[in-house]
Design goal:
By secondary structure, the chain is an alpha+beta fold. The protein contains eight helices and 16 strands. Strands 5-6-7-15-13-12-8-16 form an eight-stranded mixed beta barrel. The chain has a two-stranded antiparallel sheet with strand order 1-2. A two-stranded antiparallel sheet has the order 3-4. A hairpin with a 6-residue loop joins strand 10 and strand 11.
């Protein structure tokens, strides 16, 4: 007699139960292995997969061997600069105004010059001559601003002046150009400004094209203090620039200087405070404006977190302007994903805080966007 516990049905249940336990144990092992792969994959992506802060359609070809890991230099103290208002908010005859770049005293205290960063190795006689030249240029600012701008440009192109004198020269350059560059006035001896009389059928865009100007039509609206791009009339006299515009980043000073003209005849028209790449990751050398890379209100995806910001999102960390840069020297040709852009983190200006790009205050990057054009503008990034 077969016992109930030894029946075929009972044996089958025991075999099925044993097989189920083996399958469940195998499933837990596979699940645990998959979890380890996900955890280590995330860690690798988080710490080794970082990319520079660029719009969604910009990709940086990064070479880890070219990264420089050095201590962050201490930026120089910030100075008051000319505040250029957004073009759509400018009244017809708005005078240039001045405002402090940073209002937080603690932030200013953090931005003192590094020891020996711009200190001169000149003799006392040479320093005295430089100081005398600076005093002469500053004295000319009111009586002959065109000549004073040239003199200050030549002084700032060198590095012999100490940091305090350089700050005074930058301040004077911005104040002088509030009239020479960013107002509708045209001085007779200024080779970088001319006048144009509006004709029937003209628009700011076709005026820029007909005169082959190396700037955006928005810059014409800005310097002529026009409420809108359509606020021109036949017979109206407009101010227009004559030269191409170029940029120079001085990493040791955390400044972006804008020049008009080329070679030895160029003059500095503006100097802006900036933020640079953390761990000295902003590359050096000569860069052109990457074709079709200038964007207004760009969308952006954070390559570290994957967070996506739509166009016109006020929380977009890269602000409302993007100017793509492309290396044009043998050592930086692979760096084509960096750029100049705005920021919502105003406290980062004057620090190494970005993923390698050049950050600017919102009102400053709007002006630079209007001035730097392709193919003629060159941006030089110096140590």
């Amino acid at each position: 007699m077969v016992l109930h516990s030894q029946s075929i049905r009972s044996d089958g249940r025991r075999m099925m139960s044993s097989d189920g336990r083996r399958i469940r144990r195998r499933g837990w092992k596979l699940f645990g292995l998959l979890g380890l792969v996900i955890v280590f994959g995330w860690i690798g992506w988080r710490f080794f997969g970082s990319q520079p802060d660029v719009p969604a359609d910009e990709i940086r070809k990064d070479d880890p061997a070219l990264r420089v890991q050095v201590p962050a230099p201490t930026p120089i103290a910030e100075i008051a600069v000319v505040e250029i208002q957004p073009v759509n908010s400018l009244p017809a005859n708005a005078p240039p105004t001045t405002a402090a770049v940073i209002d937080d005293p603690n932030q200013i205290a953090q931005q003192q010059p590094a020891d020996g960063m711009t200190q001169s190795q000149s003799t006392p006689e040479e320093m005295a001559a430089l100081n005398s030249a600076l005093q002469t240029a500053l004295a000319q600012a009111d009586t002959d601003p065109v000549t004073a701008r040239v003199s200050l440009t030549r002084l700032l192109e060198g590095s012999a002046m100490d940091s305090e004198d350089r700050l005074r020269a930058y301040q004077a350059i911005n104040n002088i150009n509030a009239v020479l560059t960013f107002s509708e006035r045209v001085l007779a001896n200024d080779p970088f400004a001319q006048q144009y009389t509006v004709k029937s059928g003209d628009s700011l865009s076709n005026i820029r094209k007909s005169l082959n100007l190396d700037c955006e039509w928005r810059f014409l609206q800005r310097i002529n203090h026009l409420p809108t791009e359509r606020s021109i009339r036949v017979g109206q006299v407009l101010k227009t620039p004559t030269g191409a515009f170029h940029g120079e980043v001085r990493k040791s000073e955390f400044r972006l200087n804008i020049f008009e003209g080329d070679d030895a005849k160029r003059v500095m028209i503006a100097s802006y405070p900036i933020s640079l790449g953390e761990f000295n990751s902003t590359p050096t050398g000569m860069f052109a404006i990457r074709p079709r890379s200038k964007l207004i209100d760009p969308e952006w995806r954070n390559p570290r977190t994957g967070q996506h910001f739509q166009s016109n999102d006020p929380d977009n960390p890269i602000g409302e302007r993007w100017i793509g840069l492309k290396g044009i020297e043998p050592h930086n040709k692979s760096f084509d994903g960096y750029g100049i852009h705005g920021t919502t983190d105003l406290g980062s200006i004057g620090k190494q805080a970005s993923m390698g790009c050049v950050r600017m205050l919102p009102q400053d990057v709007e002006v630079v966007y209007e001035l730097l054009t392709e193919p003629n503008s060159i941006v030089t990034i110096a140590p």
